[in-house]
Amino acid sequence: MLERLNQALEHLESHLDQPVDVAELARIAVMSEYHFRRLFSALAGLSLSEYVRRRRLTVAGAEVLAGERTLLEIAIRYGYGSGEAFARAFRAVHGVGPGTARREGAALRSQPRISFRLVVEGSSSMEYRVVQKEAFRIVGKRARVPLVHEGMNPAIADFIRGIAPEELDRFSALADQEPAGVLGVSVNLDPSRAEGTELDYYHGVATSAAAPDDLDALEVPAGTWAVFASSGAFPQALQYLWRDVFTQWFPANPYQSRPGPEILRTRLSADATEADAELWIPVERIRS
After folding, report:
1. Alpha-carbon span 249 to 230, nearest angstrom
2. pTM, entire model
3. Buried b (16+ CB within 10 A) or exposed e, 209-246
4. What whole-number distance in Å separates Cα of residue 219 and Cα of residue 30?
5. Quick one: DSSP state of residue 179?
6. Nearest-angstrom CA–CA distance, 97 and 27
7. In angstroms, rounded to a whole number, what is the distance separating the alpha carbons of residues 169 and 44?
8. pLDDT in tens, 39-97
9. What CA–CA distance (Å, rounded) separates 101 from 256?
10. Which residue from 186, 218, 192 is spatially nearest to 282, judged by alpha carbons?
11. Across the strands, what pairs with 147?
C-alpha cells in the first residue's frame, strides 16, 4: 500500500502546476479518495491540501529567485488568480513577499517532498476484529465541536458535563447491541481533519429503538467495521490508538476506511487517569 501511495505522490509532484486531481491520485494508490485523504493526513501529519500548498509555494519560491518568469506568470502557473493573492500566500509561508525575495535574494522556507515507509517498532501486535453489522442508530445528545488532536477536548468535556444524570440514564437504557454502553461518536468531520475544524459529536448509545423526540439520533447504515482495543493513560492512549490504526494497521491490511461515524467506547479508571477503550472504524475491503 505504501509503495502505491508513494507512486501517487510522484504523480502529484510532476503536476504541481496543474489542478490537483485527488480522484486520480487515489486511483494510482488503488484506494478510495476518502481513504487516500485520511491515510495521507495520518501519515504526514498535515492535510493533503496543506501539503500541496506548501510544495507549490516551495517550488514557486525557487522560480521567484531564478528570475526567469515574471511574478504574475509564476502566480498563474501555481493556481493563483492574481499577483496579490500569490503575494499573500507567499508571505504566509516564506515570511517575505515575492518581490522583496527576488530583489534581495532572501532566504526562503522549504517544504520537503514526502515519501512514506513502514517502520516496525518493537514486536507488539494490535488487537482487532472485523464485524459485519446491520443498520442501527445512535441515540443521545449531539453537539458541534472543534477537532483537537492532542490532549483533552475541552468542548467535548464541557458538553458531557452538561448532560443531566437522569437524561444520561434515560438514553443509556435504550442500548441493546454492540458497541455496548455509552459511546462517543464522531461524524461529519472536515475532509482535511485539520486542528480546529468542526465535527458532530454524539454522546449516546447504539440501539434499534426509536429516538424520543427530545433526543438526537444518527442513522447508521449496515456495513463492515474494524474494531480495535486499547488500554493506557487517558486521553493520550486513545489518541495514539487513532494514530496507530491509520499509520500501522491500514498500511499492513487489505482494508480502507469508508465514510461513516467513528465510534469510541471508553471505560475510565476511578481517578480518570487510565482508560480501556474500543474503537470502531467503518471500513471496506480493498479488492486487488
Report:
1. 14
2. 0.77
3. eebeeebbbbebeebbbbbbebeeebbeebbebbebbb
4. 29
5. S
6. 37
7. 41
8. 898 888 888 999 999 999 999 999 999 899 999 999 999 999 999 999 999 999 999 99
9. 43
10. 186
11. none
Residue identified by cell 510522484 is 10
Distance between CA atoms of 244 and 262, rounded to whole angstroms?
15
Q: How far apart are CA 232 and CA 51, in angstroms?
A: 32
Instruction: Using alpha carbons, select from 76, 79, 77, 70 the residue that is nearest to residue 99.
Output: 70
Residues in the chain: 288
Assigned C-alpha cell, 14: 510532476
**DSSP letters along 30-74, please?**
TS-HHHHHHHHHHHHSS-HHHHHHHHHHHHHHHHHHHTSS-HHHH
Phi, psi of 280 (to 5 degrees): -110, 120
The residues near 18 (Cβ < 8 Å, ≥ 6 apart) are none
C-alpha cell of residue 251? 498500511
Q: Which residues pair with 128 in a beta bridge?
A: 228
Distance, in Å, from the CA atom of 128 to the CA atom of 224, rounded to the nearest integer, reads 13
